[in-house]
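Recall that a protein's primary structure is simply its ordered list of amino acids. Everything else, from secondary elements to tertiary packing, is in principle encoded there. The following example makes that idea concrete.
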Amino acid sequence: MTDTLTVSVLGTGIMGAAMARNLARAGHTVRAWNRTRAKAEPLAADGAHIADTPAEAVEGADAVLTMLHDGDAVLGVMRQAAPALRPGTAWIQSTTAGLDALTGLAAFAREHRLAFFDAPVLGTRQPAETGQLLVLAAGPTESRETVTPVFDAVGSRTLWTGEDAAAGSATRLKLVANSWVIAATNATGEVLALAQALGVDPQNFFDAIAGGPLDMGYLRAKADLVLNDGLTPASFAVSTAEKDARLIVQAGQEHGVRLDGAEASAERLRRAAAQGHADEDMAAVYYASFDEPQTP
């Protein structure tokens, strides 16, 4: 297997576009598709072929990478691509789709004889743009030589969690990791809101925890987005975070675990989206603490 591949990227939003760009820069032939073509067209400057349909995008591909909003979107797009899919093609499914959706995706892969990889990623816009994502991957050993060059182009490290993608070990780890990310982001929004309500300078809070075990670079980075009007462009949008939070709650319920914090976070993210912040960075969950429009 050559290290130079033809890779179809289906979904060129925040993450998919960055991944496609890094694949092209690594020397791979990239065929990109997005439901809204205008979001994919800038990739032409990086050498990508912009396809009009999913079937056109996957024609002749060694690997197909899906990075869409949710599991339903992935299955719908792959059904459109099905007439042009070749048996044995590696399918890298990187959308955070949740455990229930994964069952249907794995069945589709079996039906079309695809080498299926459950491969969500950890990281947001900046690490995606610099090829520094952490790839969480599960899939068949015998096909890993095909997908390794793809993972190397988009990420700094690949963490293999199993050989059976249908078992969802990578997706399970992604949900666990995202539960922490969402909880930390929600806590950041609430601490800033409480500081504002009580007339406390947020900098005094940061000074109080500086250098100690409660200090976090992530806390400071997300707080900075709120305090310094940096919520756009989003690194991880409110609407996407809400979807992930609900997948986390659902996974917990199905396995006998009550996740009250994740459920509250999902509701706060929903309120922030309803207030007009859906496309802003998830740090905009800060605004869900107030009934009236706020200036931090």
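The CA atoms of residues 10 and 66 lie 5 Å apart. Strands lie at 6-10, 29-33, 49-50, 63-66, 90-93, 115-118, 121-122, 133-138, 155-162.
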